[in-house]
Each structure stands twice: as structure tokens, then as C-alpha cells.
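Support request, please re-run this one:
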Amino acid sequence: MTFLTRFEPFREFASLQNQMNRLLQQEPQGGEESLLQTRFAPPVDIYEDEHSYTLKLEVPGIDEKDIDVKLENNTLSVSGERKFEKDEKEENYRRVERRYGSFVRSFTLPATIDSENVTADYDKGLLKIRLAKKAEAKPKQIKVTVGRQIEAVKPKAA
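Re-run finished. Output below.
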């Protein structure tokens, strides 16, 4: 006996969408501890000019004492931690979208960085790291003269 079944290509998609909706609407388990165990990566902008590289990381709500910047073997590492405020009771939260916990961002740097000339400033939630380039890595201006011809060297007669 042969059975005919109607082919519905989107039936599985609807089922998958329902499962994803249930998964995303579940309440976090574990209370405050689950919020603290989250890792996140703060967004960064990297800018290069002829003298330096500049990195700008968004790390609002983090104390400067909780931020660590290291330069080792041409790798810049920025790490820190955003701590969960204990002022409010967790059961009163309806939604938590800000990320808490620790973060680590690492960047491989070119050999042209002067590791002795690195600065880091923190202001209004923005960490700005300036990495100066070595003198030999900076572009050199070559003057172009106009109207002078270079004389060709004539071979000596024997």
C-alpha cells in the first residue's frame, strides 16, 4: 500500500521558529551568578595615521582600576570586568541587556610599533590607547625638483 503525503517545505521552519522563541523567552537560571559569568567583547574602533595607531574601546560602567592593558610580544591585550550592581534585588529585574562579567580583547600589532611609547586614557566610558610608530616606520617626504635634468654619466674613452 502506498501513502501519499503532502510536501510542505516550510513546516519544519515553523517548528524551528517556535523552538527558538521558547528558548529565547526562558528566564535565566542561577540568579545573579549567571549574570556574572557572562563574557563579552566591547566594541573597538582602530585608527591609523602617519604617526600612530589609536584604539578606542567602549567600556562604560567599568572603573579604570578594573581595566588592564598589556603589551607583550607584539600583542596588545585589554582585559577588564564589569561588576553587577547589587543595589537592586535581582528578582525585580524584568530584562537585563547590559553584559556583566569579564572581557578580553587581543590585537596582534605590526613590528613598527614603538613599545616604549604607548599611552592609555580613560574618560566617560571610552578607553583610548595610542600606539606610536617607530621613527623608521613613518613615511618620509622626498622633495621633487622641477626643471633640473640629471646628467648621464659618460663612459671614459680608452
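The chain has two helices and seven strands. The domain at 39-137 is CATH 2.60.40.790 (Immunoglobulin-like).
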